Every structure is written in C-alpha cells, then in structure tokens.
Predict the structure.
Amino acid sequence: MNHRTKIVVLGCALLLTAGAASAATASDDAPRQREAAALTGTAKLYRSAGDDITFSFDAHLAAKDDADPTKATGTFEFSHYLNGEGARATAKVDCLLTGGKVAVVSGVITSSDLPGAEGKRVGVTVHDVGRHDRLGYSWASTGNPVETKELPKCVSSAPFEKVKKGTDDFTVVPWKPDF
C-alpha cells in the first residue's frame, strides 16, 4: 500500500470507530421518560422551642402509572424529639399527588417507636419554594398519628410549618396528567 492509501484506510477506520462510538453514546443518552411525579429530600422543621423534627421523602410515581397516583412507591420517614424524648416512624407510600411545587403524599406506617402507630395511614404536604419550603401533616389537628381515625389516601393538612434554614430542602416533580 502506498502512503496515500494508508491515510485513506486509517481515516475510514477512524470514521467508522467514531460513528460506532457515537451511535452507542446516542442510545445511552436517549431521553428517558421522566417519572410522572416525585417528592424527595430531607429537612428539619423550624421550632423556636428547639424541637428536633426531621422529614425525609423518597416517593415516586412512574410514568407508566401517570393515571393512578395510588400506584406511587417509596417511603418517607419522620421524627420528633425534644429534650431526649419523642418518636420516629417510617411509612410505605400508597399515594402521591403533586401540582406545581406542592406535593401530598400518604402512606402506612411500617415501623415506629410510637406505641400504636404501626399500621396507621398518615399524610404529609410539602410546598417546595426553594430554601424556604413549608410542610404540613395529617395529624396536625390531632396531636399525633395514633389519634387519627382512618385517613383516606392522599390526604394531609396545609403546609403551615417552616423548614429550618440550612437543613436542606425538598424537591417536588409536578404531576402533569392527561385530561
């Protein structure tokens, strides 16, 4: 092979390699369908008395379940302590509704150190406004989840509590159902 032919062959080989790599990358980077809705994040609530109240969310509604918010999956956790006393709980998500930057999630408590809490449904509302998120919960008027009687799915209170500055925040992915 002469010098010119070698350059052409090498150039073709490079083009073929680049094309194959580009095709592989394109399929890896193909746009994935976003989930239908989500609520994620961890933050502490602000209380002037110094209560240590933390909420964490990992709740998701898959794109394929867009028409049914009761098919949401995930968990959320919350705890409330003051002067070394309090309780914590983990709930399995059974519904997630979001609208704009507001989310309502409900779930059944699967583990807790609050006597009588396991098996109770609770709901939480989050308003995702950046560093000044707000939160509400279904037991706001009863005092604790144990006192709440048979709460329906996706029910909570207005987000009246403030997130404590500098403790992170929550992220809401808005639900956009086809109507």
